[in-house]
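[step 3/7] inverse_fold.run input=structure_tokens len=183
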């Protein structure tokens, strides 16, 4: 039992430094178009060396984006007017030496590129995502977009999941980013 505990402690010290070095992922450069209502943003610090190597080795990886629209109320809790989720998924084809990025917004087909930098830009950028709230947005009232991003490696078959258990350490999520506006 002591050997097991000491092995676990040793392994945790080996893994912790790699987490401390990387930049923390965050939502940035949020812009809102008000007619029709669309939001654009990007995620900074999303790619660590381990994630880059995993993608280059062919492991499908997805960024899940969550957008909430709330009407800001001063005396009672904010009222949620809508919630949208979509994914960007990348798969590397080592035979063709190209990345295929699949967008979940529904407004674009997948894109193929051989450029690693272009793949990173496409994976971390959400451009003009249309949002249709449950009730109309009224002029002169305050609203808030809340945006969050999560990275999840794609689920592997049962046996591979046990062999590649360390992939779970690559999963991350940003904190909620708030953007208030008045139409």
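[step 3/7] decode complete -> sequence:
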């Amino acid at each position: 039992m002591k050997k097991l505990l000491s092995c676990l402690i040793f392994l945790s010290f080996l893994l912790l430094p790699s987490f401390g070095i990387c930049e923390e992922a965050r939502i940035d450069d949020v812009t809102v178009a008000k007619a029709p209502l669309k939001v654009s943003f990007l995620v900074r610090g999303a790619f660590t060396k381990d994630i880059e190597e995993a993608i280059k080795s062919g492991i499908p990886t997805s960024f899940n984006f969550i957008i909430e629209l709330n009407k800001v109320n001063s005396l009672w809790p904010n009222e949620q007017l809508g919630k949208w989720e979509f994914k960007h998924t990348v798969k590397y084809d080592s035979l063709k030496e190209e990345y295929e990025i699949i967008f979940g917004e529904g407004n674009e087909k997948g894109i193929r590129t051989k450029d690693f930098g272009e793949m990173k830009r496409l994976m971390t950028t959400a451009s003009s995502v249309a949002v249709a709230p449950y009730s109309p947005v009224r002029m002169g009232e305050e609203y808030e977009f809340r945006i969050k991003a999560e990275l999840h490696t794609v689920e592997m078959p049962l046996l591979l999941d046990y062999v590649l258990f360390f992939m779970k350490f690559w999963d991350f999520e940003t904190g909620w980013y708030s953007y208030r506006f008045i139409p």
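[step 4/7] annotate
The two ends are 62 Å apart (CA to CA).
Confidence is low (pLDDT under 50) at residues 4-22, 159-169.
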